[in-house]
Design goal:
single chain; 215 residues; alpha+beta; 5-stranded antiparallel beta sheet; 4-stranded antiparallel beta sheet; 37% helix; elongated
């Protein structure tokens, strides 16, 4: 019997995970930790992701120069979605040296954002607006369950740390008889120094998922 084929998107994610894992395994881990705020214990790195500790165990040993490192990293918790494991690895393999600015910007103000604007809106802010646009108390409760901090943005807002160098703020404007609800997500201005723009779009969906599942 012919084995079922892996869906193309799954293959793409697995390839991205493998490439990022190999890049991290061959990196100067002490420098990685200085740049990103991660911790190190030998070949094990740990980093805060949405306030929870994620541990990355890198394969031991190095291949000869010019060859890829052996094996793939083990990520704990293992049930973390593959897309989010990739986010963690991409964050750790960023080459940013300067600290991220405290100035907050929306996705549309990031360079090149127009290309990803529609899927980003659909998977991130749009879901938040639909779920909580007429339910302010549920939005407050979801933020509280997640441990996110209330903020004075829009009608309702909350802030949280995505990674040690990346902050997020969700802004919710409630709907009424005249205007539909709207939501937005803000990040540090320099987020693209730590994550590719496509990852920032994926991150919007992760934020929406956490809020909608918190209840």
């Amino acid at each position: 019997m012919e084995r079922p084929k892996t869906p193309p998107m799954r293959e793409a994610y697995e390839l991205a995970f493998r490439k990022a894992g190999q890049a991290l395994a061959g990196s100067d881990l002490a420098a990685v930790c200085r740049r990103t705020g991660a911790g190190q214990n030998g070949r094990i790195l740990s980093v805060s992701f949405f306030g929870a500790r994620v541990q990355i165990r890198l394969p031991e040993g190095q291949e000869p120069e010019g060859q890829e490192p052996r094996g793939l990293p083990e990520v704990d918790p293992p049930e973390l979605p593959l897309m989010e494991k990739i986010l963690v690895l991409h964050y750790l393999t960023s080459t940013a040296e300067a600290p991220v600015s405290d100035r907050l910007v929306s996705f549309k103000n990031l360079p090149g954002a127009a290309f990803y604007a529609v899927p980003y809106q659909k998977r991130g802010p749009g879901r938040i607006a639909r779920r909580f646009g007429s339910s302010p108390e549920e939005f407050r409760r979801a933020c509280s369950v997640l441990g996110w901090t209330p903020e004075q943005f829009g009608d309702l807002g909350c802030s949280f740390d995505v990674f040690p160098r990346i902050r997020g703020v969700v802004v919710l404007n409630l709907g009424d008889d005249e205007f539909p609800a709207e939501a937005g997500i803000l990040h540090n201005e320099g987020i693209v120094n730590f994550l590719p723009l496509e990852d920032v779009a994926v991150l919007g969906g992760s934020i929406a998922t956490r809020l909608t599942r918190a209840l």
